[in-house]
TrEMBL record:
Residues 1-32 are annotated as: Disordered. It holds the Pfam family Chorismate_bind. One of its GO terms (molecular function) is isochorismate synthase activity. It comes from Oerskovia douganii. It catalyses: chorismate = isochorismate. Gene3D superfamilies: Anthranilate synthase. InterPro entries: ADC_synthase (IPR005801), Chorismate_C (IPR015890), IsoChor_synthase (IPR004561). Residues 199-460 form the Chorismate-utilising enzyme C-terminal domain. SUPFAM superfamilies: ADC synthase (SSF56322). Transmembrane segments: none annotated. The keyword Cytoplasm does not apply. Its EC number is 5.4.4.2. This is isochorismate synthase. Belongs to the isochorismate synthase family.
C-alpha cells in the first residue's frame, strides 16, 4: 500500500506537526505516486443495481456511495491521503491536486464518478487529530477498483482500475471475479448500551442548551449522543451497507474509512457548474402499523405547521445559503420547505441550488471538497451562530463526535463530486471488530423539550440499529 501524507494542518512555519499528532509513513511526506487509471464500460445489465453489489464486494473494508441503486462502490486501496486539524480540508485538497498532476488517466466513459476518483471522510471538529488522536482529522482514499452506475436500470455502468507506477491495472474479468469475494456474515446478536452519557444525563444536557438559548447566548444548538453496540460476531460493513441501501433507498448510503451510514442530507453536489445542497432540519417520528400512511399524513401536516421546527429549519437554510453565496453567480433558495418521508422519521427539507461563478486562471472555480469545507459546519449540525454553538457543544455535549455530522463522500479529477453529512451513521472500531459506535443528534431551540428530543434521537438511531439487525 502506498501512502502519501500532506503536512498536518496546524503545523508551525518549520513544518513540525502538533505535539502528539500521528504521521503516516516515514518522517517526511513521501514522493507523489504515479497512478495509472483505466475506465471502461461494462456490458449492458452489469451491474444491474449497486444496492445488490454492496454486500458482494470482495473487500471487508468497502468504499461506497449509493442512492437508488446508482453511484460508485470501490475496494482495495491504491492511495491514502491524511490531514490534521483546522486546515484538514485544504491540506487534503492540496495533496490530491499533486496526485492528479502525476496521474495517467484513460477514461472511455466521461461521466461523473468515472476516471480517477477518491472517497473522503473528515472529522467534525477542528481539534480532532491534533492532540495524539489515533485517527487524523481527514482521510482521502483512492480505491484500486471502482464500479459505477448512472441512469438507473438500462443506464451506463463502468469499472475503473487503478494501479501505481507503470504496471497495468487489473482487467475487468479479474476485478469482478466472484472467486475473489469473501462471504458476508451477519453480526448475530447485538447488545447496546449508552455511550459517553446516559440517556438521563443527555436530557440534562439538552435542558442546559435550552436554558442558554432562552437567556440569549445563541439561537440554536445541535446536541448529539452516542450508543455503543457489541456484536456476537465481527461486524462486516458490507452487511450493513446492503440493509441500509435497501431500506433507505432515498438516502445516500456510504462507507468510507470505517464510517458507515445512510444520510438523508446532501451537504453539496457539484456537477458541471451546478451546485445543490439538501438541507434537513425539523423532525418528527414516523409510526408504523396498519394506520401508518394516514398517521404519516397527519404528522407531516403537524410538522409543516410547527413553529419550533420551522424556526430550526430557517436557521439551517440560511446558513447554507450564506455559505454558498460567495461562490455562486445565481441561487435559488426555496421560500418554504417540503416534508421528506423516510421509513423512520419525517423531515422538513429544502433543496438550495446555485450556479458556480466561472473560474479564472488566477482563481479557479472551487472543487466540491472546497465547497463542502465552506459549508461545514452548517446550522443543521452545529447551530446558530456557528461559533457560539460550536463552543457550547464543546462545553456541554460530553463526547467526541469524531466523524459524525461531518462531510463524507467522493470527488473526481475535475473537482466535481458529492458530499453528504455523516448522519444516521456509525463508526466501526479500528481496534475491535465486534464494537460499533452509533450516533444521533437533535436541533435544540428555545421551544425544545428534553424528553421529546431524547425520543427524536432514538428515532434517528433506528437506521443503524436496523443495519446491525436481521
Amino acid at each position: 500500500m502506498t501512502e502519501h501524507s500532506p503536512l498536518p494542518a496546524g503545523t508551525d512555519d518549520l513544518g513540525a506537526p502538533p505535539a502528539g499528532s500521528p504521521r503516516t509513513g516515514s518522517s517526511g511526506p513521501s514522493a507523489v505516486p504515479r497512478l495509472v487509471v483505466r475506465t471502461t464500460l461494462l456490458p449492458d445489465g452489469l451491474p444491474g443495481d449497486l444496492t445488490a453489489l454492496t454486500d458482494l464486494l470482495p473487500d471487508a473494508r468497502p468504499l461506497a456511495w449509493v442512492r437508488r441503486g446508482d453511484g460508485i462502490v470501490g475496494w482495495g486501496e491504491a492511495l491514502r491521503l491524511e490531514a490534521w486539524g483546522p486546515g484538514r480540508f485544504a491540506d487534503a485538497e492540496a495533496a490530491w491536486q499533486e496526485v492528479l498532476g502525476a496521474a495517467v488517466v484513460h477514461d472511455d466513459v466521461a461521466l461523473p464518478g468515472s476516471g480517477l476518483v477518491a472517497f473522503g471522510s473528515f472529522a467534525f471538529d477542528d481539534a480532532s487529530g491534533t492532540t495524539g488522536d489515533a485517527r487524523p482529522g481527514g482521510t482521502i482514499v483512492v480505491p484500486r477498483v471502482v464500479v459505477g452506475r448512472r441512469g438507473g436500470p438500462g443506464g451506463t455502468a463502468w469499472v475503473t482500475s487503478i494501479s501505481e507506477g507503470d504496471a497495468l491495472p487489473d482487467d475487468v474479468a479479474t476485478v469482478l471475479d466472484p472467486a475473489h469475494r469473501t462471504p458476508v456474515v451477519g453480526p448475530g446478536r447485538v447488545t447496546t448500551v449508552d455511550g459517553s452519557l446516559s440517556a438521563q444525563d443527555w436530557t440534562a444536557v439538552v435542558a442546559e442548551g435550552v436554558e442558554r438559548i432562552r437567556r440569549g447566548d445563541l439561537e440554536k444548538v445541535v446536541l448529539a449522543r452516542d450508543v455503543l453496540a457489541t456484536a456476537e460476531r465481527p461486524v462486516d460493513p458490507r452487511w450493513m451497507l446492503g440493509r441500509l441501501a435497501t431500506a433507505y433507498e432515498a438516502c445516500w448510503t456510504f462507507s468510507v474509512d470505517g464510517m458507515v451510514g445512510a444520510t438523508p442530507e446532501l451537504l453539496v453536489r457539484s456537477e458541471k457548474g451546478l451546485v445543490t445542497s439538501r438541507v434537513l432540519a425539523g423532525t418528527i417520528r414516523r409510526s408504523g402499523g396498519a394506520e401508518a400512511d394516514d398517521d404519516s399524513l397527519l404528522r407531516a401536516a403537524h410538522l409543516a405547521r410547527s413553529s419550533k421546527d420551522l424556526e430550526e429549519h430557517e436557521y439551517a437554510v440560511a446558513s447554507v445559503a450564506d455559505a454558498l453565496a460567495p461562490f455562486c453567480s445565481s441561487m435559488n433558495v426555496p421560500d418554504a420547505p417540503f416534508v421528506l418521508h423516510l421509513p423512520n422519521v419525517l423531515h422538513l427539507a429544502s433543496d438550495v441550488t446555485g450556479v458556480l461563478r466561472a473560474g479564472t486562471d488566477d482563481t479557479p472555480a472551487p472543487t466540491s471538497l472546497a465547497l463542502a469545507a465552506a459549508l461545514h459546519p452548517s446550522a443543521a449540525v452545529c447551530g446558530t451562530p456557528t461559533l457560539a454553538a460550536r463552543d457550547l457543544i464543546r462545553e456541554i455535549e460530553g463526547m467526541d463526535r469524531a466523524r459524525y455530522a461531518a462531510p463524507v463522500g467522493w470527488f473526481g479529477a475535475d473537482g466535481d463530486g458529492e458530499w453528504g453529512i455523516a448522519l444516521r451513521s456509525a463508526e466501526l472500531s479500528a481496534q475491535d471488530p465486534f464494537h460499533v459506535r452509533l450516533f444521533a443528534g437533535c436541533g435544540i431551540v428555545a421551544a425544545s423539550d428534553p424528553a421529546a428530543e431524547l425520543a427524536e434521537s432514538e428515532a434517528k438511531l433506528e437506521p443503524m440499529r436496523h443495519a446491525l439487525g436481521g
